[in-house]
Amino acid sequence: MTDQVTRPDLAAIQEWLLGTCRDLGLRATGPDDDFFETGGTSLTAIKLIAKAEERYGDGALPPDDLFTQSSMHGIAASIGRNATVTGTPGESRA
Amino acid sequence: MTVTDRWVLRLRGAETSPRVRLICIPYAGGSPEAFRAWSSGLAPDVELLAVQLPGRGARLRHPLYEDWKPLLDDTFAALEPYLREPHAFYGHSFGGRLAYELTHLAETRFPDRTRRLFVGGCRSPDVPQQTPLLHTRTDADFRAALEQMGGSPAEVLRNDLLMAMLLPTIRGEIRLAEMWQDWHPGGVLAPITAVYGRDDPIDSHREMRHWPRFSRGRGEVVELAGGHFFMTSHGPELVHIINTRLEEDDG
């Protein structure tokens, strides 16, 4: 492996995101669903940002991105750009 | 997605053809999602809609309103497709003021379609705004006051990144709420149900008891337990009041 950060796979992020949003009580089922139109609020936004950072590293989901590109694919793309860890279970930041 | 889709959320359709459409308007900075909890308690033939103003959720970056006139014109335009059939408004606090103004417009444009106006936690137009005003305070004081009011979770109010995005919206709508006065020579035709929280430090019985004067129909003032945000803390009780009144209006 090089010292370059391996970007996590978008499809994997998308899948993680939909599952996490459902755990937060949202009704999102597909990439076109909007975070705020499927039940997202300021409070769920904070929770999602915290979970994204836990999994994909600090700053993985900037709040500004979440509010301005709030579809599931928009959010997944933001995490893809900003992730500092791949988020694969069992893999570390190294 | 059309403009109307972003402005108006349909939180719940009616099971049959809707008898009446309940259009809800949240408090300053509030999310239309605040009304979703009402879905299960409302009578099945009531359709539940909520207004999403700019500056929150997917509309975070849409320009905020600094004056009542454009706010009213644009909100009314977004709601127009929904006002041709029987409807009622519920507005809470800042949303109550907006609901009263929208009722005036709706009655001019679509006569006899507004079945009732519900206002919650909102002074009547003739009662002067409490001072000192909130909207002129510094950010730190303003946030402390919001936390004391109890409408938003402390987790949200203490998050600096999130507050940097949301505070202009909340402050802007509280400013409009504080500037609002009695601008109409007569009241609305629709009956008014004014609901206050017994322990509301902002707009309780004293500030809400004159609401019946602002309806040329019938008016009533109803007490619920709870503070300024009784619509959240005592949702089922409030929904019960709404159900019984909408049923009476139909009879």
Automatic annotation (TrEMBL), chain A:
PROSITE patterns: CARRIER (PS50075). Residues 4-83 form the Carrier domain. It comes from the Bacteria. The lineage of its organism: Bacteria, Bacillati, Actinomycetota, Actinomycetes, Micromonosporales. This is Phosphopantetheine binding protein. InterPro entries: ACP-like_sf, PP-bd_ACP.
TrEMBL record, chain B:
InterPro entries: AB_hydrolase_fold (IPR029058), TEII (IPR012223), Thioesterase (IPR001031). One of its GO terms (biological process) is lipid biosynthetic process. Residues 21-245 form the Thioesterase domain. It comes from the Bacteria. Pfam families: Thioesterase (PF00975). SUPFAM superfamilies: alpha/beta-Hydrolases (SSF53474). PANTHER family: S-ACYL FATTY ACID SYNTHASE THIOESTERASE, MEDIUM CHAIN (PTHR11487:SF0), THIOESTERASE (PTHR11487). Belongs to the thioesterase family. This is Surfactin synthase thioesterase subunit. It comes from Actinoplanes xinjiangensis.
